[in-house]
Structure formats: structure tokens, C-alpha cells
């Protein structure tokens, strides 16, 4: 299977359009699903929206799939559910399929035919910390605080905690979650050491050399934990940052959009065996989810208010529509009253958000290496092979082609499958201005001041 | 109801109208007015204090918002049933369409995939608690009788019972979960794993009080009755059926009532912990949702849990009264 993807990629590069065209026509007619009754898992976050919309709009049923959608208590339970077969597929953190496949944490071969969204996270600090860091943030000409807020404004606060001998605790949602890497990226960019992992020594707390102690809390429990004072800040997806503003218990300081513009966020994951045994079902799931993603971004986010109503149902996200709507409809409220337009806070389809780019997978791998979750140096090829093991643009292309053929989607909305390599062009849309080129993972890691580099070992 | 009984009883006893009115009034005040007053005062205190408790999810729900959510939850249930009917309609159409295209296709009606409503969750919890209870009773009563009749067996098993009795069934939960997922594997299971896990947990907590009470009940049968059995030379089976069981019914039922009450409490906690369908999951989900309605909805669930627990206990009491000769033990 792996070889065939590579073969396809090579064929596309070498022979161009004609070679792929024949493969695509062969795939265009998607057969009946092999498995019709499915259970999909999710964690209560707004970016599970494609699953909810595909269900509510009947896109799953259009594919002949009878899907039950089930909320999971946390990411660990969700991943275990997919691995032991209780769940057929799930809304996953981008890092989860990758980490599972390379055997960090629970080991299992998980594949991703569909990337669920871009952006959508934020970092919130408690009111008390906010009061202390606010004087360190420059004020612009309009009298408003200058965004994006650098973690250097937080640094004196962390140092004060340190000098008083108190730990500065922060939370993220999972050791291999996007939030973890974003939070670490932001802290490190501001000169705060977020700590290393050393799995070889059995240390998976991620607190070696740390200035801030970062630990795991399930998303829906973040506000309550912050309110209880157990943590001073957290990095989480929506609606849990906006919830803090509404409850008046904390202030969001930065969104992931400001840390890395249009960063990949959640993915849809199934086990490799599932994709192997039920290829039609997998492609049909990808079709339904793609249609849902298109609907979510259609008419310039015109469907979002309706999406918010659906997500506010108790069986999906269940938070107040007002709170969910805040970020879903293109604005984000930082300090109470400081509402700013972030039209791309949640991107579900545009900018090829749903295409599983190898370069996205590799970025996560570089961060795993940077913070020590990958204990040893790996050659660039290893990064590329791993990405190709987990990300399955071939399944995505089959789904998209058939949608185009049936007139349910337009070809120009998708990457040009014939020439797409799966690597986005190099970008420096990061808060610290570093350049990321997915084809050069090792060179990328070596740029950072804080973090493991080629040759370093804990 | 009982006021009415009081009324008829008193009427036949005294015949005098004045004393009848007096007794009726006393009965009415005791049985109806005082409880109603108690509930009213409770509602007033609840309503006034609730407004002063400010949480980050808004003020603590008072009776009005709880009532509002109760009607909402019922409305959602009705809505969901309508959606369910549509779901089956669409499915039949789709099946028919596919059969015309693909004649070899065996059409199958799949169960509704929508969310369980509050009423569904109540039903799930009730079915779970009753089946767990039934399983426990089937195991515990014969075991209890055997232990009660046989001193040696009692000595052998008693230490085990004493050790396992104080263990919270919730501590068993992780083990039960793992064992069920390892042992119970089938492609098309008749019972879901989550149901089995909850049910076994309930059964585990019902088991011990029932065994102990049955054993004690059986062991403390009056010697006279045992002697009667001896004189009549009843066979062992007949001895159990004619003498032991009737004599120990009050104690057995005390154990059953006790364990059903515990089982209901434990089930809710187990559902919360294991995320198994039922009222416990409803409470936990609402807590996780953190919407402004969540606290009121949790309060609805709490009241429902309380009322169902009360009704379960009353049912057991009625059954106990029906089958028991010792009315005194059933009056509590």
C-alpha cells in the first residue's frame, strides 16, 4: 500500500497528468461501503464541526453510511477507542496518528485521509497572571494592546514565580497535541523554556529544564481547572478560551493563528487495518466530511450561524451558542470587550484545509524531535517516510475526484492532484519569523535557540 | 390514599360524625398538609438561596429554571422521536433504491443513530440497575441459603464476604471494563459492552448485602420450625421450599431493598466514571458542556434520580409486604 502511494507520487512527478488520469478514472466510481454502521468519536471542541455537519446534513447517509457520533471523555480514551475498534474513526489531534504510528505513547498504525481544519486554538492565562503581564505589553496608537502578544511579556511573571519558589503551571490537552506544540512554540519564542521530554530515560512528563510546568487536562475541564487555581494558563481549542472570557476567569492572550498562520489542526483518523479492509467506506467517509467542510466555509462563512446552533446541542459541543459563535463566526474576544476580527480563526475548507499535506505531518514530527519526544536524530528521509505512512492523500484524491465527477464539488477547490507533491512551499508565517520547509526537517529544527538540535541528546 | 383508608377505618370504628371529622382532619394534616408544607418551604428556601449562589456558569438553578429545563428536555425527546421516524423512512427509501440497482443486496434496517434523549437515558439506567439486581439476586439468594444452612460453608465463605463487602464497586470498575472487553468479543453483540460493564458493577454491589441478609435470615429460623420439618421428615428441597424460604423472606427482602438502594447510587457514579450511557453520563456530559443551562439540567437529573430511587424502594416495599408474613419488618 505504502509503495503504491510512493509509486503514484513518482508517477505524478515524472509522467505528469496522463499517468494519474488513468488511476483517477479507475477510482472515480466508488463502490458501495463495505461497512455501513459506524461509530465516530470526537472531543467536545468546535473543530469537530465537519462530523456534526456531515451527520446533520445527511451527508453520511448519502454515502449509505449509518453513523453514530459519540463524545469521548478525553484524547486518550478516544485513541484507545479507535485502536480497540470501539470507534471506527475519530476527530483526532494531528499529532495523534503520527505519534501512534511511530510508537510514542500508545502504539498503533493510524492513517489520516482527511485533515479537519486549520487554526482554532488559543492560549488563555488566569486573570491574576494577566494583570501581571499586561504592563509588559506595548500599547499601539489606537490605544489597544499590540497583538500578537509575545510570551516575553509573560517571562517576568514566570521569573517572579521562580524566584518565589512557586511552580508556574500550565495545561495543554495531550502530550502530542497541537496545543502542546503551539504552547511550547510560543513560550520558547518568548524566551521561556517549556521543558523537554526524555522517553529513553522513562521521563514523559516533559518538564526537564522547564521554566513552566506543562501538564495534561482534558479540554472541557480547562476552565474549571483554571478557576480552581491549579493552573495559571492553558492552551486549548474553542470554545474553551471564549468560555474563560464569558465566565470572567481568564484572558486569552494569543491564538494559534498568530503563532503560525493557517496551521493544520485536527485530522480524521482511522486505523490502517480499517482503511485496508474497508477502502470504499474510508473514501465515502472522506467524501461526506469534505462536503461538510465545504458547507462550513461556503458563502463566506454564511452557514456558520447555523453550524453554531447545531454545535450548541448538548450531544455535540454543548456550550452556549453565544460562546461557540464568538470564534466560529470570525471574531475572537481577548480581554473582555477587546473583540477583534479573526476571519480565519476556524478554517474548514478554503486554503485546501482538508488535504492531508505531508509537510504538515513533518512539522509535527519536527516539534516532537525539538522537545525530545523523538529521542534521537532521524534523517530527513525518515521524516518523509513516516509522513507518507500516516497521511493518505491517495484516499483523499479518490474521494475528491468522485465528488468532482458527480458535480458535488469543483475541481478548482482542490489541489491539482496531478502535480501535487504533498509539500507546501516554504513559509515564514510564524510568530518568530522562522522559515519552515517541509522537505528539510533537520535544517528547520537547527534554527531554534531553545530546543533539541541535530546531535543533541538528553 | 392512606388518608382515605384512615377515613374508612375510623368511620367504621367510631360512627360519630364529630370524631370522624376530627380524625379526618388530623389524618389530612399529618399525611397531606404537613408534607406539602415541607415541600413548599423547601422550594422557597431553594429558590431564595439559589439566587445568591453565583457560579461561573451563572446563578445556581432555582425551581423555575429547573422546571423550564424539564419541559425542554421533554420537548427534545419528542423532537428526537420525530427525527427517528424520518430516519427510518429515509432508510427504507435508500434500501429500496439500492435493491433496484444491486439486486443481490440484502436490505437491513439499522437502528436509529441519533442521540439518546433524557428519557432514553432514564430507561437505560433503569434497565441496567434492574438487570444487575436480578443477576445478583439469582446468585446471592441460593448462596445465602446454602451459607445460612451450612455452618462449615459459612466459615469458609464468610471471610471472603467480609473482605469484599466494604469494597466500593467503583474500584472494580476498571477491572470489569478490561475483562469485559477482553472476554466479550463478538461481531454482532446482542448486549453492548458498556451495558455489561455497568450491569456487572451493579451486580457486584448488590451481591454482598443480599448474601449476608439471606444467610442471617436462614440461620436465625426458629428452632421450632426446624423441628416441625424434622418431625414431618421433609426432604432437603422441601425443607428449603416450605420452611426456610418463607421463614427468611423478611430478612431476604431487607437485604434486597438495601442493595437496590445502593445499586442505584452506585450505577449513577459508575456511568459518570465509565461514560456508559445512562443518567450518570447525562450529568457528566452536561457538566462538561458548561453551558448556561447545564446546572439546571443537572438539577433535573438529580431530582429524577431521587424520585426513581424513591419509587424503586417503594416497589420493593410493596413486594415485600405481599410476600412476607412478618408485617412489622416491612413497615420501615
Q: What is the architecture of the largest domain in chain A at the second tier of CATH?
A: 3-Layer(aba) Sandwich
Secondary-structure-based class of chain A equals: alpha/beta
The total beta strand count of chain A reads 14
Helix-strand sequence of chain B: HHEEHHHHHHHHH
In the CATH scheme, the class of the largest domain in chain A would be Alpha Beta
Number of helices of chain B: 11
Q: Largest chain-chain contact?
A: A-B, 36 and 24 residues
Shape estimate of chain A = globular
Number of domains of chain B: 2
Terminal CA distance of chain B reads 18 Å
User: How much of the sequence of chain A is in beta strands?
Assistant: 15-25%
Assign the structural class of chain B, choosing from mainly alpha, mainly beta, alpha/beta, alpha+beta, or little secondary structure.
mainly alpha
Instruction: Estimate the mean pLDDT confidence of chain B.
Output: 86
The H-level CATH homologous superfamily of the largest domain in chain B, spelled out, is MetI-like
Radius of gyration of chain A, taken over Cα atoms and rounded to an integer in Å:
21 Å
Binned, the helix content of chain A reads 40-55%
Average pLDDT of chain A works out at 89
Quick one: biggest sheet of chain A? 5 strands, mixed
Silhouette of chain B: globular
**Spatial order of strands in the largest sheet of chain A:** 2-1-3-12-4
Amino acid at each position: 500500500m505504502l509503495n503504491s502511494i510512493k509509486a503514484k507520487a513518482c508517477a505524478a512527478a515524472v509522467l505528469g497528468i496522463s499517468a494519474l488520469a488513468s488511476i483517477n478514472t479507475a477510482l472515480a466510481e466508488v463502490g458501495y461501503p463495505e461497512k455501513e454502521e459506524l461509530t465516530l468519536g470526537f472531543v467536545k471542541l468546535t473543530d469537530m464541526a465537519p462530523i456534526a455537519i456531515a451527520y446533520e446534513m445527511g451527508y453520511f447517509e448519502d454515502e449509505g453510511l449509518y453513523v453514530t457520533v459519540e463524545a469521548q471523555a478525553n484524547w486518550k480514551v478516544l485513541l484507545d477507542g479507535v485502536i480497540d475498534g470501539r470507534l471506527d474513526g475519530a476527530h483526532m489531534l494531528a499529532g495523534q496518528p503520527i505519534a501512534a504510528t511511530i510508537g510514542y505513547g500508545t502504539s498503533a498504525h493510524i492513517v489520516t485521509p482527511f485533515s479537519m481544519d486549520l487554526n482554532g486554538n488559543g492560549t488563555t492565562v488566569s486573570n491574576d497572571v494577566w494583570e501581571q503581564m499586561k504592563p509588559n505589553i506595548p500599547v499601539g496608537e489606537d490605544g489597544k494592546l499590540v497583538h500578537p502578544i509575545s510570551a516575553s511579556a509573560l517571562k517576568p511573571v514566570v521569573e517572579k514565580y521562580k524566584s518565589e519558589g512557586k511552580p508556574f503551571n500550565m495545561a495543554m490537552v495531550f502530550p502530542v497535541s497541537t496545543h502542546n506544540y503551539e504552547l511550547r512554540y510560543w513560550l520558547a519564542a518568548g524566551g521561556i523554556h517549556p521543558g523537554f521530554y526524555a522517553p529513553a530515560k522513562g521521563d514523559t512528563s516533559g518538564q526537564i529544564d522547564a521554566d513552566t510546568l506543562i501538564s495534561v487536562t482534558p479540554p472541557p475541564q480547562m476552565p474549571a481547572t483554571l478557576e480552581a487555581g491549579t493552573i495559571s494558563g492553558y492552551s486549548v481549542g474553542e470554545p474553551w478560551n471564549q468560555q474563560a472570557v464569558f465566565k470572567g476567569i481568564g484572558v486569552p492572550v494569543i491564538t494559534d493563528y498568530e503563532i503560525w498562520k493557517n496551521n493544520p489542526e485536527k485530522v480524521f483518523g482511522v486505523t490502517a487495518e480499517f482503511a485496508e479492509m474497508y477502502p470504499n467506506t474510508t473514501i465515502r467517509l472522506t467524501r461526506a466530511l469534505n462536503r461538510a467542510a465545504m458547507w462550513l466555509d461556503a458563502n463566506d462563512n454564511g452557514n456558520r450561524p447555523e453550524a453554531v446552533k447545531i454545535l450548541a446541542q448538548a450531544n455535540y459541543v454543548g456550550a452556549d451558542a453565544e460562546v461557540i459563535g464568538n470564534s466560529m463566526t470570525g471574531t475572537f474576544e481577548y480581554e473582555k470587550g477587546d473583540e477583534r476580527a479573526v476571519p480565519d480563526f476556524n478554517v474548514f475548507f478554503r486554503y485546501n484545509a482538508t488535504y492531508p499535506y505531508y509537510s504538515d505531518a513533518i512539522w509535527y514530527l519536527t516539534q516532537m524531535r525539538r522537545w525530545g519526544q523523538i529521542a534521537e536524530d532521524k534523517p530527513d528521509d525518515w521524516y518523509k517516510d513516516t509522513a507518507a505512512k500516516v497521511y493518505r492523500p491517495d484516499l483523499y484524491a479518490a474521494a475528491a475526484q468522485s465528488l468532482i465527477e458527480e458535480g458535488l464539488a469543483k475541481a478548482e477547490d482542490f489541489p491539482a492532484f496531478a502535480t501535487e507533491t504533498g509539500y507546501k512551499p516554504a513559509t515564514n508565517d510564524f510568530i518568530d519569523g522562522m522559515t519552515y520547509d517541509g522537505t528539510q526537517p533537520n535544517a528547520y529544527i537547527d534554527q531554534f535557540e531553545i530546543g533539541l538540535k541535530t546531535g543533541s541528546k538528553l | 390514599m392512606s388518608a382515605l383508608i384512615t377515613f374508612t377505618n375510623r368511620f367504621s370504628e367510631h360512627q360519630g360524625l364529630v370524631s370522624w371529622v376530627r380524625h379526618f382532619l388530623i389524618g389530612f394534616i399529618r399525611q397531606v398538609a404537613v408534607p406539602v408544607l415541607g415541600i413548599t418551604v423547601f422550594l422557597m428556601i431553594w429558590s431564595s438561596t439559589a439566587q445568591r449562589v453565583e457560579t461561573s456558569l451563572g446563578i445556581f438553578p432555582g425551581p423555575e429554571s429547573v422546571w423550564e429545563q424539564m419541559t425542554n428536555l421533554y420537548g427534545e425527546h419528542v423532537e428526537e422521536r420525530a427525527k427517528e421516524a424520518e430516519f427510518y423512512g429515509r432508510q427504507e427509501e435508500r434500501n429500496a433504491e439500492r435493491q433496484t440497482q444491486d439486486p443481490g443486496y440484502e436490505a437491513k434496517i439499522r437502528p436509529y443513530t441519533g442521540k439518546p434523549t433524557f428519557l432514553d437515558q432514564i430507561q437505560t439506567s433503569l434497565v441496567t440497575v434492574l438487570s444487575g439486581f436480578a443477576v445478583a439476586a439469582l446468585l446471592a439468594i441460593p448462596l445465602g441459603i446454602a451459607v445460612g444452612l451450612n455452618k462449615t460453608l459459612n466459615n469458609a465463605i464468610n471471610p471472603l464476604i467480609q473482605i469484599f463487602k466494604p469494597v466500593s464497586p467503583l474500584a472494580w470498575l476498571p477491572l470489569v471494563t478490561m475483562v469485559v472487553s477482553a472476554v466479550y468479543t463478538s461481531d454482532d453483540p446482542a448486549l453492548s459492552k458498556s451495558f455489561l460493564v455497568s450491569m456487572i458493577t451493579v451486580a457486584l454491589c448488590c451481591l454482598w448485602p443480599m448474601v449476608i441478609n439471606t444467610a442471617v435470615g436462614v440461620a436465625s429460623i426458629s428452632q421450632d420450625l426446624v423441628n416441625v420439618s424434622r418431625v414431618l421428615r421433609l426432604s432437603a428441597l422441601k425443607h428449603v421450599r416450605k420452611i426456610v424460604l418463607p421463614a427468611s423472606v423478611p430478612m431476604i427482602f431487607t437485604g434486597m431493598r438495601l442493595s437496590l438502594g445502593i445499586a442505584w447510587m452506585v450505577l449513577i457514579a459508575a456511568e459518570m466514571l465509565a461514560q456508559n450511557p445512562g443518567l450518570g453520563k447525562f450529568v457528566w456530559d452536561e457538566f462538561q458542556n458548561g453551558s448556561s443551562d447545564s446546572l439546571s439540567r443537572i438539577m433535573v437529573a438529580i431530582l429524577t434520580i431521587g424520585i426513581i430511587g424513591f419509587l424503586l424502594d417503594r416497589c420493593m416495599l410493596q413486594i415485600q409486604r405481599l410476600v412476607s408474613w412478618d408485617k412489622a419488618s416491612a413497615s420501615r
